[in-house]
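C-ALPHA CELLS:
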Amino acid sequence: MNPMDMPVQVPVDNPNEDTEWNDILRKHGVIPEKPPDPEPMIQEALVEARRLAHENRLEGKNLDELDELEDEEDDGFLDQYRQKRLNELNTISQKSVFNQVYPLQKVDYARDVTEASQNSFVCVLLTSSTGTNPESALLSRYWHQLAARFGDIKFCQIRANLCIEGYPDKNTPTVLIYKDGDIKKQIVTLRELSGMHTALEDLQRMLVSIGALKHNDSRLQQAEQEGPSEVRGSIRAGNTTNAQVDADDWD
C-alpha cells in the first residue's frame, strides 16, 4: 500500500467549535458539518407567534365586545371581525332548526337518531323508568335548556326501558351522542361528570370536547354572562316533580 494512501488520524478537540482548524477539516470532509444553530429558528418562531397572536387578538369576541374597542382598534379591522361574527350568527341561525327536545319512539330510532346524525349531532337521553332517580331528573331539566340554546344540535329523550328492554335503572341517566351514524360519546350516569353537582356548563364543555360546539361559540359566551344554572339546587332539595313530568311525557 502506498504510504500516501494510508489514513491519518487527525487530532480534533471539539468538532463543534468554530475554529479555523475545524473549518479546514470540515472542508475536506474529515469532520461533519456543524449542525445549524437553533437559536435563529427559535427567534423566528417566537416572532411569528407574536404576530399571529396580534392578528388574532379579536378572535372569540362578540359584537358587543368589538363595539367597546372602537377607540382602540382600526375601523377597517373591527369591521372585518364584525362581519365575521355576523356571518357566524347567520350560519347558526340557518342551522338552528330543532330548538326543542324530541320524544323518541323505539321503532323510529334508526330514522330519528342514526340517520339524522348524518346532518347534525344528535344527543339522546335515556331517563329513569321509575321516576325516583334525581340524576335523571337533573339531566332532563338541563336537556331542555341545552335544546333551546343550541338549536343546531338535535336533543332527544326516551325512557330507558322503552328503548332497551330490561335496561337497569341504576344506569340512568345515560347519554348517547351520535354523529355520522356513529356514537361519538357515551355517558352512563353523571358519575363521569360531577354527580348531582353537575352543572349545565359541564355539559356544554362536553359538547365542545366532541366538536358539537366550537369553543368560541357566541352562545357559550352568552351563557357565561347569564351565570351558572340553579336547576340542581332545587332538585337536590327534593323538587323532582316537574323534571319527571318532562320525562313521563315521552311515554
Remarks:
- The CA atoms of residues 204 and 220 lie 8 Å apart.
- Residues 75-95 form the longest helix (21 residues).
- The longest strand covers residues 182-188.
